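This part of the workshop introduces the protein records we will be handling. The structure tokens are whole numbers drawn from a learned vocabulary of backbone shapes. The record below serves as our worked example for the rest of this section.

===
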Amino acid sequence: IIRHLAKKRQLPLSSRDFDELLILGTVAVVVGARLGHVVSSWGYYSANPGQIIALWNGGMAFHGGFIGLVVAGYLFAKRKKLAFYDIADIAVIPVALALAFGRIANFINGEFYGTPTSLPWGVKFQGVEGFRHPVQIYEAIKNFFIFVVLWQLWDRKLPKGALFWLFVFLYGSIRFFLEFVKDIPDYAFGMSWGQFWSIPMAVVGGYMLWKLYSK
């Protein structure tokens, strides 16, 4: 998808550049997501520092991975002498799609399930008491929705950065409300880790969209 959109936007990128972007982005996502998880569970990892690198035991945080991806995109754009938004505006489109498939994988694995529910679509996860909100599917629908919105807008005449900040705003604002039906402990101020970091995403994303269009 990035190759297709970059070609349509006539960005001067070779096949080798795309390979480099893929490798750099993958490493940045894994490292950032892992560090985000470690920070969110520092009480455990400070007592068990050897587990920090134990990726095989699971533990990734979207917000950390997204920050890592942004940093990687910035460094890549700077090296190729492109504007950051030239890369970011098209990269967030397949990112939204990838996140949707990731949540479906969470559902299949029976992880990150929701709170108990009596709704007819409640799901019985193995080893979990009662029927639960299939919040992984809610999140997948959210990400598919964001993908469709961005895909419908990518070829329109928009300010640079509009798609990137629209992704940030939509993801942060919708996820904040979905966190209410997740069976996860509070992180700070009565909010989950996802809510705590989704608020700045929604606020900054909304502000940047307003700023872009006010010009």
